[in-house]
Amino acid sequence: MAEQIPLYPVRSAAAAASGKRAAYFSAAGPGPGAERSSRYQLEDESAHLDEMPLMMSEEGFENDESDYHKLPRARIMRRKRGLEWFVCGGLKFLCTSCCDWLINICQRKKELKARTVWLGYPEKCEEKHPRNSIKNQKYNVFTFIPGVLYEQFKFFLNLYFLVVSCSQFVPALKIGYLYTYWAPLGFVLAVTIMREAIDEFRRFQRDKEVNSQLYSKLTVRGKVQVKSSDIQVGDLIIVEKNQRIPSDMVFLRTSEKAGSCFIRTDQLDGETDWKLKVAVSCTQRLPALGDLFSINAYVYAQKPQLDIHSFEGTFTREDSDPPIHESLSIENTLWASTVVASGTIIGVVIYTGKETRSVMNTSNPKNKVGLLDLELNQLTKALFLALVALSVVMVTLQGFSGPWYRSLFRFLLLFSYIIPISLRVNLDMGKAAYGWMIMKDENIPGTVVRTSTIPEELGRLVYLLTDKTGTLTRNEMVFKRLHLGTVSYGTDTMDEIQNQLMNSYSQTQSQASGNNASSTPPRKAQSSAPKVRKSVSSRVHEAVKAVALCHNVTPVYEARGAAGETEFTEADQDFSDDNRTYQASSPDEVALVQWTESVGLTLVNRDLTSMQLRTPSGQILTYCILQTFPFTSESKRMGVIVRDESTAEITFYMKGADVAMSTVVQYNDWLEEECGNMAREGLRTLVVAKRALTDEQYQDFENRYNQAKLSIHDRTLKVAAVVESLEREMELLCLTGVEDQLQTDVRPTLEMLRNAGLKIWMLTGDKLETATCIAKSSHLVSRTQDTHVFRPVTSRGEAHLELNAFRRKHDCALVISGDSLEVCLKYYEHEFVELACQCPAVVCCRCAPTQKAHIVKLLQQHTGRRTCAIGDGGNDVSMIQAADCGIGIEGKAVFSSVFYFASVPLYQGFLMVGYATVYTMFPVFSLVLDQDVKPEMAMLYPELYKDLTKGRSLSCKTFLVWVLISIYQGGILMFGALVLFESEFVHVVAISFTALVLTELLMVALTVRTWHWLMAVAELLSLGCYVASLAFLNQYFDVPFIMTMTFVWKVSAITVVSCLPLYILKYLKRKLSPPSYSKLSS
Q: Which segments carry the region annotation Disordered (predicted)?
């Protein structure tokens, strides 16, 4: 990786213009102009970086770049100036411009804009928005037949067969019966059209089912039922529990008294965790549903975009004094294709149809073509050129006498059997057989082959791109380790924690009763209290309580009421432990809360303002939630400020990744070492800390925090700065370790795939720390390999430096986030992909669905290798469609050339049909059962797979060898028959054709590496069919002659001469240069 990727710099004249622009804005002075000045200077720096060489050092980066050659944006190869560039480049530019102009005229896309959506009044929308219908079909009634035929005949092989078949309608060119050409071609087309029609009809049924789903729409006159496809922007839609959200909406109201609900997003981002969504407070406070029409309110929403993790908008109510304004974020949105998991929700539709996040993140399906088909297509072109050359030679030998062009075409048709149509038939049937074998494989029960045209692609893969959640992992978290610094608890010592917790709470309860008797006032937190070494019991107590309080988990109780009810009373709910489930946006937090329940401290209730814990003795502890700071990818930690209702103590709890927490906790000498130990075990670590606050400290913080949240400029930075003022000298409580359960046999499977030569990339929407941990625990990254975590970059300059740092690493896995990846691909696509392809493993986290598909396409374009994508969620569909082979979980044709020096066919009518079908098809087709090594041997030595990816079975060398064999055998058959025939020309047909059929059967036998009993049956069946048909082919054969010994010895002699040398050569090759697998099989 250290070697420099060659870049070809060219100077640009952009520097002068950018310098003038910078000078102009630098004169703006203080105030708003100064702000614009800094912004434009950043843009100018970015523009200047566009022309910088990638391998510049940090020192050079800081110097003046005027002495450096420059790298223009979006350019990989060097531009060649002069006449060559003017002619080639100018012509290309002109053609591209014209094509782009025509495409823009024909497919003028509507510009996406921000919108104002009035609640319940779709007619107020200023612009027309797309219908809310789902369409996954590739064709319609009018385009189906033309589309399918185009997909078939855009390949030269099929187009060649079509032209040859159509030529037989011309009397002057007709050399045989029409059925000899049209029957095989018609069979192939009929199978293809039938298969496409079935797939298209299934897609139509699925689309119709989704578009016909009924939803309740809230109107001035009450609720009405509408189809999903009839929903418009501005409609107020009611969605029940376990119902799919039909379009992108802003969350207005819910039946849950907390004003929030959970949704399942597994079909959007692939994560099975439930996400907490919060209703707009202004509409949630309204007394009844009908009041939504009594207010004058609207939502301002940003223009539709791809990012499913962000949203910017505002909610405004104009009829109040003063008008109410609420900022809207991602937690107030409900994206289409997600499912309501709790309660009933009401939302206002803001995006429909093609403008929804889920549809924008879905790519159009493409017709996948196997590498074998592409290679055969190229070889067919080579054979066609040979066919044309041979025809020209024949016409030349005739001296171009008479209508020579007619003779040329007839020779072309006679030699057309050099490219046998049986090749197409056998290929399609062989693929279908491979697909059937995969579905019937006992080792992978339940596997369904959706596409029968690319099963052979599984043998040519180089890059394997996999999702994480649900694919490599079960997404089931199990608490494994609690470390307090001096003592560590594992799964076998959890009972000690339970006993210490029980003793601690019993002592606390007795002390509290004593304090109540003496009327002692609640103790205030004293930040200046002297530090006293705590007992292990009290430290365990503090750690477990912190874990039980610092989270975003909500206990959910299933209702006993009827399924159709939308409002429940508390009397309808069962609050027993058996009926309680925990829901959160992260499975880590659920595992932590389940663990605190197992040791005796149970979370029994939670809403937006409070939570309740039950102690081992059954006492209920109530905590008021004062502030919650959610986890972000930037902060890598989350926190909560709570007040104990019994003691009035205010405590700030925080947990997060070790890299984020190590700087905010008090000095210690064990955290870094223990985090490393747990990470090596494949555990996901969280550092837990706390800080006691006085009432004065909290009030001061709250004032500053609320003021920061009202800021118009740099709100995020100001809020973060206020929160960071609390994150100082926090008391380190514990380190937790949680294990994400891997799928069965993931580790040996990945090891085997790596040994087979496949490069594995993990593309996930999960957090960076989680993805890195799973990459190590699943052995995607081996324990001896280093991991380079690509730092977050937002500009070209940062990407420039980080790529330089990455280039200096050797044999290390790469971990990069989706945002940083986007920046790198924008400026350094070619360089980044080339560096990443040299890594033994790559992990991309926080990937959007379209990003996954983009990465697949980049690998295909830059490497030309075959890719396979594996995923389990709706967010993986685009990636699976883009890959050459998608998992949601070799053949060879033998042919001989037959010709004669006259423009009439030697073998006419049924002889050619029989040769292409019943005489030779079964043995060739039986080759799908051939095995070079046993399946058990292939699993034991996965390195053998590397030979398949090289494609030697159908390389140019292999192709030329078979062409030479065909020429040799064709020459022997014809020359021998002509030499040995005596009086009747018809004997030439009998001798040569019989020898041809026998040669074909013997060549199939020569190709076989491992015999199967069905292969022997196919050989004998074909021979039996030919012998039996001789009695009915009086018009082609002299039956009395073929019953003589003369016929037998002549056929035998020709067959032996055509096949025996090849058998001898094969035997010598296996002895002198045996294949790699032969040593294992022996």
A: 504-536
